[in-house]
Write a structure and sequence with these properties.
Length: 175
């Protein structure tokens, strides 16, 4: 890692000197061998560092808990931060969305019929429900009503024909 930093500092120094002196800018590249090359010269320094060894695992952190006062506590120390937030104000309503696409037409429904047993049948399946109600038993007789008022007397009729006159009207003669 130190070699890489030294190589980078050298590159920066060379470029800076070249710029200050008015010289041409150095051409810097990584060669096929993985080293830094400056103006076609191999510096002998690797451009890509090799992977170092892994460090040791750190120790586990403390688990926060919510104290009786509602704050977060870590290692028995009150952080002063509430564990449960208070309700905020409601946001503005969003704009209405676009109408959806019409759905496809549904299938025709089945027509119920009254079967030979008197039940409703749908798609050749007996529903078990009677299509016609069964006669109920007769109700009890009601009580007699009260008598109405007597009517008023009629007017006298005209005198009728005598029996003799009726006999004559029927084509009979004589006295």
């Amino acid at each position: 890692m130190k070699k890489l930093l030294i190589a980078l500092l050298c590159v920066v120094l060379c470029v800076s000197i070249a710029c200050l002196c008015g010289c041409k800018t150095a051409e810097i590249s990584i060669g096929a061998n993985g080293n830094w090359w400056i103006d076609g010269v191999d510096t002998g320094n690797k451009a890509v560092a090799t992977d170092g060894t892994n460090g040791q695992d750190g120790k586990d952190g403390a688990t926060p808990v919510i104290g009786a006062n509602g704050n977060w506590w870590i290692n028995n120390v009150d952080t002063g931060f509430k564990a449960v937030a208070t309700d905020g104000t409601n946001g503005k309503d969003g704009i209405n969305g676009k109408d959806g696409v019409n759905g496809t037409n549904g299938m025709d429904g089945a027509t119920p019929v009254i079967g030979a047993n008197g039940n409703w049948w749908i798609n050749n399946v007996d529903t078990g429900y009677k299509a016609v109600a069964v006669d109920g038993k007769d109700g009890t007789n009601g009580t007699n009503g009260t008598n109405g008022k007597d009517g008023t007397n009629g007017t006298n009729g005209t005198d009728g024909k005598s029996a003799y006159q009726i006999w004559l009207d029927n084509g009979n003669t004589g006295s």
